[in-house]
TrEMBL record:
<dbReference type="Pfam" id="PF02580">
    <property type="entry name" value="Tyr_Deacylase"/>
</dbReference>
<keyword id="KW-0820">tRNA-binding</keyword>
<dbReference type="InterPro" id="IPR023509">
    <property type="entry name" value="DTD-like_sf"/>
</dbReference>
<dbReference type="InterPro" id="IPR003732">
    <property type="entry name" value="Daa-tRNA_deacyls_DTD"/>
</dbReference>
<feature type="short sequence motif" description="Gly-cisPro motif, important for rejection of L-amino acids">
    <location>
        <begin position="137"/>
        <end position="138"/>
    </location>
</feature>
<dbReference type="GO" id="GO:0051500">
    <property type="term" value="F:D-tyrosyl-tRNA(Tyr) deacylase activity"/>
</dbReference>
<keyword id="KW-0694">RNA-binding</keyword>
<comment type="similarity">
    <text>Belongs to the DTD family.</text>
</comment>
<comment type="function">
    <text>An aminoacyl-tRNA editing enzyme that deacylates mischarged D-aminoacyl-tRNAs. Also deacylates mischarged glycyl-tRNA(Ala), protecting cells against glycine mischarging by AlaRS. Acts via tRNA-based rather than protein-based catalysis; rejects L-amino acids rather than detecting D-amino acids in the active site. By recycling D-aminoacyl-tRNA to D-amino acids and free tRNA molecules, this enzyme counteracts the toxicity associated with the formation of D-aminoacyl-tRNA entities in vivo and helps enforce protein L-homochirality.</text>
</comment>
<dbReference type="GO" id="GO:0000049">
    <property type="term" value="F:tRNA binding"/>
</dbReference>
<keyword id="KW-0378">Hydrolase</keyword>
<dbReference type="GO" id="GO:0043908">
    <property type="term" value="F:Ser(Gly)-tRNA(Ala) hydrolase activity"/>
</dbReference>
<comment type="subunit">
    <text>Homodimer.</text>
</comment>
<dbReference type="GO" id="GO:0019478">
    <property type="term" value="P:D-amino acid catabolic process"/>
</dbReference>
<dbReference type="GO" id="GO:0005737">
    <property type="term" value="C:cytoplasm"/>
</dbReference>
<keyword id="KW-0963">Cytoplasm</keyword>
<dbReference type="GO" id="GO:0106026">
    <property type="term" value="F:Gly-tRNA(Ala) deacylase activity"/>
</dbReference>
Length: 145
């Protein structure tokens, strides 16, 4: 399971011209689900994403996590994170979970974030989404479990 997280001042996702999720300060989480991922990985990745210290404290050091700054998360499914790009000029998606498992685990990740009392917004699984963000920093990290 992969999360590409970006510290944002604001972010939103739109599907068919309708905003399905929007946040102010927080994390945009692009979530990729791979074959073999399970509920244990969902919980580990959730804890890593929410606990990752990417926000500055009063001394300007990245010592605070999204919950400590009162931020939110916007979770967007992104199957392309599971791509194998090692050979050729076209990605292979053979490492990605099948759509049914990926959708279930995506929703499980969202619920797991909500269980930690953090405002969690979403895109729509498998939809053609338009994601807008104002990256703060820029600060971007690849997290994997």
């Amino acid at each position: 399971m992969i999360a590409l997280i970006q510290r944002v001042s604001e972010a939103s996702v739109t599907v068919d011209g309708i905003v399905t999720g929007a946040i102010g300060q927080g994390l945009l989480v692009l979530l990729g689900v791979e074959k073999g991922d399970d509920e244990a990985k969902v919980r580990r990745l959730r804890d890593k994403v929410l606990g990752y210290r990417v926000f500055e404290d009063e001394a300007g050091k990245m010592n605070l996590n999204v919950q400590q700054v009162g931020g939110s998360v916007l979770v967007v499914s992104q199957f392309t994170l599971a791509a194998d790009t090692n050979s050729g000029m076209r990605p292979s998606f053979s490492a990605g979970a099948n759509p049914a498992d990926a959708e279930r685990l995506y929703h499980d990740f969202v619920k797991a974030c909500q269980e930690k009392d953090i405002r969690t917004e979403t895109g729509r699984f498998a939809a053609d989404m338009k994601v807008a963000l104002l990256n703060d920093g820029p600060v971007t990290f690849w997290l994997q479990c």
